[in-house]
Amino acid sequence: MSQATALDRVRELLDPTLLGLAGRDATAGGYLDLLGAEPAGSPVQWLMRSGFLPGIYERVWRPAVLGAMKGPFGPGTRQELALVGRMLELGPGDRVLDVACGPGNVTRALADGVGPAGLAVGLDASASMLARAVRDTRTRDLGNVGYVRGDAAGLPFLPGCFDAVSCLAALYLFEHPFEALAGMARVLRPGGRIAVMTTRRVPYGGPLNALVGVASGVRLFGDEEVVEALNRLGFSGLRHRAYGLVQFVNGRLV
Q: How is the chain classified by DSSP, letter by letter?
């Protein structure tokens, strides 16, 4: 299955009724581009869109920064991917969406779980991150991966078209994180699974929480915030795991 065919399959999942799609379905970069110019944002968001970070994100930035946040007892990169795989319960032929996919390291891992008949879709707002994802030889070798440049707070897909959705190390960057979660629920079929990894406010860690939040410009979520938001959206069997300043939440849409 060629990458062009994968993009054709992704295109079939786009919702034509959503605003902003007309005239923006460009594929010159090897991904579907549904956005215009990149807006200004926080320092971390600017860094994510820079040309520098995509080159070191998978091997240096993510293990170092997230590793420090997860603490000595948190899962390493491989353990994290295995954990997310168990959360999403992927099987052959499934369609999975990786929201805020960055350079595609998680998307490619998820593609392994759905097989050639399945489809893994990575969505990100950063053109430089997606350019790196498309250049990765593993993307071309897999053939069941397609990338979309789009808005995580306004997912451009048809309702109920995915079997699973992941959003790792990104929810804290969104201006409207709970609207983004609602969009993830919208594109999941009944019984679909979600896995979220995001920041965490340490209980009784007021000064530390404040320092991390101010220094990074990202949001820290309480232990119940994401769980309660997903419960309101109709998810059941919710499970919460906490490691230092990081939390994982997963569940199934009723």
A: --HHHHHHHHHTTB-TTSTT-TT--B-TTSSEE---SPPP--HHHHHHHSSSHHHHIIIIIIIIIIHHHH-TTS--HHHHHHHHHHHHT--TT-EEEEET-TTSHHHHHHHHHHTTTSEEEEEES-HHHHHHHHH-HHHHHH-SEEEEE--GGG--B-TT-EEEEEEES-GGG-SSHHHHHHHHHHHEEEEEEEEEEEE-PPTT-HHHHHHHHHHH------TTHHHHHHHHTTEEEEEEEEETTEEEEEEEE-
Residuewise pLDDT in 10s, the chain (254 residues): 455 589 999 999 999 887 555 445 567 689 999 987 665 554 455 455 555 555 556 666 667 777 788 888 899 889 999 999 999 999 999 999 999 999 999 999 999 999 999 999 999 999 999 999 999 877 777 889 999 999 999 999 999 999 999 999 999 989 899 999 999 999 999 999 999 999 998 775 555 555 554 445 578 999 999 999 999 999 999 999 999 989 999 999 99
